[in-house]
Design a protein that fits this description.
Helices cover 45% and strands 10% of the residues. With 99 residues, the chain is mainly alpha-helical. α2 packs parallel to α3.
């Protein structure tokens, strides 16, 4: 199955990214780095997943945190490593909601 990368669509707001995906009849979307933090992320994803039948794959630096940082799971800097692990856990939780 072919997925279009969100990097190709180049929208900062997840709501605009998903609307553009739908308008262009894209049914499979890989969402990666490049979007801004959105407190309503799950609401937007649920809407487009259930109502519009778009399938998602999440990759790399998504979902974006409120405060950006350089993702590095192997960092010697404890703060960066902890933020990286926290972000990885968030993507696992969100991914499990969308298969």
């Amino acid at each position: 199955m072919l997925y279009i990368s969100s990097c190709y669509i180049k929208k900062k707001k997840i709501s605009e990214l998903l609307a553009n995906t739908y308008i262009n009849n894209i049914k499979n979307l890989e969402i990666t780095a490049g979007t801004d933090y959105d407190i309503n992320l799950n609401k937007h994803l649920r809407e487009y997943s259930s109502n519009k039948k778009i399938k998602f794959r999440f990759h790399n630096y998504f979902p974006p945190p409120k405060k950006h940082f350089y993702l590095n799971l192997a960092s010697k800097n404890q703060a960066i490593r902890n933020l990286s692990i926290k972000n990885a856990k968030r993507i696992i939780d969100i991914s499990s909601q969308y298969n």
